[in-house]
Amino acid sequence: MFKHILLPTDGSDSSDVAIQSAVQLARETGATITGLHVVPPFHTFTYRADMLEDTEEQYDKESEVQARKVLMKIEQQAQAGGVPFDTVVIRSDDVYDAIIATANHRHCDLIAMASHGRRGMRGLLLGSVTQKVLTHSELPVLVYR
């Protein structure tokens, strides 16, 4: 069975459901969890309001604080379930690629993640990190909806 689960989260309600389920799976199988939050690096020219108003130093500091808040949910669930865990923050513009690279680098044998369930034109325009992970990962991917 699985021994090391990568659990990426974006802090959404969908991710919260995935966290609860993945922690339960890890507890039942004796697996370790690595929680992951991917933060886009600072860009001088951007569409994101939080980057337009900040300096690079401010953005890095505030995004790190926000990432730690998001990962706190994994920490709390894993501690409550008695599941060994660690967390990591990665800076990347390509979220799906960062997820796959982290899973490989940390020798995970499963990626467990949420899907927001976007369909139709909205899904096509916004793209799907989950779909890209499913398409490009050589590791098994468990998707929670």
Automatic annotation (TrEMBL):
Classification via Pfam families: Usp (PF00582)
Domain UspA: 1-145
Gene Ontology terms: cellular component: cytoplasm
Protein location: Cytoplasm
Lineage: superkingdom: Bacteria
Assigned keywords, A-Z: Cytoplasm
Family named by the database record: Belongs to the universal stress protein A family.
Name listed for the protein in its UniProt record: Universal stress protein
